[in-house]
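Hi everyone,

Forwarding the result from last night's run.
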Amino acid sequence: MTDTKLTNTNTTSTDATSTHVPNTNMTVTTAATPTDPQALASATAHAMWQRDRTAQALAMRIEHIAPGHATLSMPVRSDMVNGHHICHGGMIFTLADTAFAYACNSYNQTTVASACHVDFIAPAKEHEVLHAEATERSASGRTGVYDVTVRTAEGKLIALFRGKSHRIGGEVISGPDHG
């Protein structure tokens, strides 16, 4: 099976074809499905990104991927603010949920949310850039627990999210039709 690998744009490969992934700081390198955990997490993130229309439409960016960990960012645009002229809670939730998804799928095992909870701590404003950092707290069998912290670029805490995951079978890299 042939697949892809994400690397920093500063990294080059002499024996493979590299292509920049839009809205990320990564490039794609064609290679066999990686066995190295970091390379597998990066390749899985790339495979998800290619199909993730929501994250792309909201101008999210993958900032960092590692096994059980993901950091994504999203600018608060004018079409994301509510009637109070602050970022709509659903947009903040979507960013946190997306970081959660990239973290819990980083092992290339198709995983979905079984439950989640969000606490909104402070409002986010138009033109701020939000960063959601997801971290695995527990993984056992087919379930996991992940915490996500959403902050502004300046470090102001915006939201705390906890997601529970459930592995449903199949691999992310090979796609939903191959599981």
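Residues 132 and 150 are 4 Å apart (CA to CA).

Cheers,
N.
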